[in-house]
Fold each of these.
Amino acid sequence: MHRPHLTIQLFLLIFTLVSITGCSQVVHVSHSDIKEFDRVDDNIDDIRTKVIIQPQALGNQTVHSQSGLFIVGIANKWDVDLNKNLPTAMQSVMAHTYPDVRVGNSCPDCGLFVRPSIKNVKLDKISMRSTLDLEVRFFDAHGQIIKTLKAHGDSSHWDGERISAGIVGYFVPLLGTALGPRLVRETVKDALNEALSDMSEQISQETNSGVLARHWKAKGANQGKAIGNHQYNAEKLAINNGCDMNSDEVMLTQTKYAQETYSVQCWGKPAFMVLCEFGQCVLEDDQDSIAQAQNRL
């Protein structure tokens, strides 16, 4: 006689469980405070470029949705948002190589503009192992693209917390939903940390010997700088070594008696030094050539 009543109660219970478990949550992910990102290169004082990390415009930001994850409820939807904290994460990475890095939208005296973005966030349905791609574009002070670097990150296949949650969640309804934000955040964070670490190494390499080896100039950076007696010859030697004086820089750094030393930063080349004396200019590695040339006179 009470079966219709029990049937209605059972239906309401099932409906309530589905409604609760089939939720949608936004998970904000940040990077870990990894010590190696705070480590400073030995030659960081030689880099004069000011760097600004520019966040993506709101209209271009992507929230990566994940659903059907077994451990945290198949009916749940998880919106993974890395946009809010990514600029700060990249600031930590860039500070490993550059002494002056800030986050913002404009900077009149910055020579390098950095725009990071996250691509292809994916979580495995069973293990919740996450993968993602980090893309960073570098622009000079005039808005010209210099380089695009890409890095990939993976979390571990399994970890103790995910295994425990999967086992217990099987016997305890809604536990996966309760633990879901933390589990999703931590597994995506692991993938993000790996991508940031890879990106840090790439930036350091490109800055020391690759396309970012030039010390990028801000607009009007040459105004008020000293001009040496051998400036023309130093620039001519720089041009012969692949530099473009419309965008690159030859700067007088030291004067000692008749000798002048110039620092040269050219797009796509490691920085190098030029030594000039008595009308002769040579690369620092060929400094003995000046004495040889004078002996022939």
Amino acid sequence: MTERGKRSPAVKIKLIVRDDCIVCKEVQRELERYVSLRESISFQLLDLDRGEKLPNGESSIITPSVWVNGKLWYLGRFNIDRFDERINRLINTESA
């Protein structure tokens, strides 16, 4: 539990993008919409063109790349319905 009594997000999504990537912008909009509807998910956007650095152990040459709880899940576009299924399985596993 955090200091306010709320539980930490069960799922941490990190999206790695570049400024000049059209697909990155599309994936960003879709993920931001998705995350806004979910309470148990945190979202972080890292833009490599703005000099933002990746955490240790995470690297990406291809953008966009989607990392979930420190693991690479997707490179490029992906199906949001399949993503949601995987997220739900992850949340159910974490809460069990």
